[in-house]
Design goal:
By secondary structure, the protein is mainly α. Helices cover about 60% and strands about 0% of the residues. The protein is built from 15 helices and two strands. Strands 1-2 form a two-stranded antiparallel sheet.
């Protein structure tokens, strides 16, 4: 997995790679089936993929829907890889090395040397074309590294996070660190962000509000099919814009998959209950104002982290863990495998008769 982590952030084709970075989707398509070997996707995921395929029947644009189904399959494979991985540290190390390349290039871009095409004049984006993608991926990976105490790999990611100038990465990182201290700090920070957004919103914030309103207006029970939001145009006070993404994954998933999106919403909720991690919490925050599931690097990190968080999950184990944890002494063991040694931890009551 180290090789996958190393290649994914640097598989760049000048003049072709854009914000969605299709080369990374291609690398994931080749690598994930190879890494999973004979492991199969859960029936629930297969059911959701089947619903996404069925959505082509009412898709506004079939080609866009087919691309969206491809992405949905990669979500499921990334999630499955996380569930089947005992130790993700080798993957995170590879991602750190690969993303450090963009972080290193960002230093030169900051000083005006920009040999690579970037989005909308944002001159600090590394190999990822868009500075927000660089910031979000760096923040999520730093949370993963903190979770596994891989401190030495964090400094090389900081130039990309700092020089990109994107606010989203900092919100995710600070919230992720604050949640380890106390939940009240996260609530206070989010309240502050909401206050700033409501009182001194920039033009981009205003556009984002209009995009959210368009997504809410289009919600229905069946959805509009996978990747259908890419065909939406939003009328602002000055022009007609093509946002491509809803800039809120919850709204976009609801727009595209309707009530079936509740399955996807349940995954991060169960992750927080079963085995909460910083990366999962960071994804939950990031998805409220960005589109981490629709850019391949952030989508892979998030889906892998969600899968690893739910490693060994079972509904019965969830009920026993939170209702009667004394009956399941191995429930808090991060290893999902059955461990016969738990018997030695049970209290022994001497028989008197």
């Amino acid at each position: 997995m180290f090789i996958l982590g190393l290649l994914l952030p640097i598989c760049y084709i000048p003049g072709y790679t854009g914000a969605s970075i299709p080369t990374q989707w291609a690398v994931l398509s080749l690598a994930l089936p190879f890494l999973l070997h004979c492991a199969s996707i859960s029936r629930v995921w297969l059911g959701f993929i089947a619903f996404a395929i069925l959505g082509t029947l009412w898709a506004p644009q079939v080609y866009d829907s087919i691309f969206g189904i491809w992405v949905v399959v990669l979500w499921g494979l990334s999630f499955q890889l996380g569930q089947s991985s005992e130790d993700p540290t080798s993957l995170y190390k590879g991602l750190a090395y690969g993303l450090s390349v963009s972080s290193f290039i960002a230093i030169f871009q900051w000083f005006g040397y920009t040999p690579l095409p970037v989005a909308y004049g944002n001159n600090v984006a590394g190999l990822l074309y868009n500075r927000t993608v660089l910031s979000a991926a760096s923040a999520l990976l730093i949370l993963c590294l903190i979770e596994h105490r891989l401190w030495l790999y964090i400094p090389s990611l900081l130039p990309g996070l700092i020089l990109s100038g994107s606010r989203g990465g900092w919100v995710v990182l600070i919230c992720g660190i604050a949640v380890r201290i106390h939940w009240s700090l996260v609530i206070a920070q989010l309240a502050l962000v909401a206050l700033i957004f409501g009182t001194s919103a920039s033009s981009s914030d205003t556009e984002r509000s209009l995009i959210w309103a368009s997504a809410i207006h289009g919600l229905n029970w069946l959805g509009w099919s996978a990747n259908s939001f890419i065909g939406i145009y939003v009328l602002t006070t000055h022009s007609l814009i093509h946002p491509e993404f809803a800039h809120n994954d919850y709204l976009q998933l609801g727009f595209e998959f309707g009530s079936a999106s509740l399955f996807l919403f349940s995954i991060p909720i169960l992750s927080l209950v079963w085995r909460p991690t910083l990366a999962v919490f960071g994804f939950i925050i990031l998805a409220t104002f960005y589109f981490p599931l629709y850019t391949p690097l952030t989508a892979f990190i998030c889906c892998f982290a969600l899968g690893h968080s739910l490693r060994g999950f079972s509904p019965s184990g969830l009920l026993i863990r939170h209702c009667r944890p004394d009956l399941l002494p191995w429930a808090h063991d991060p290893r999902p495998e059955y461990d016969p040694a738990w018997r030695s931890t049970l209290p022994v009551q001497p028989r008197t008769s």
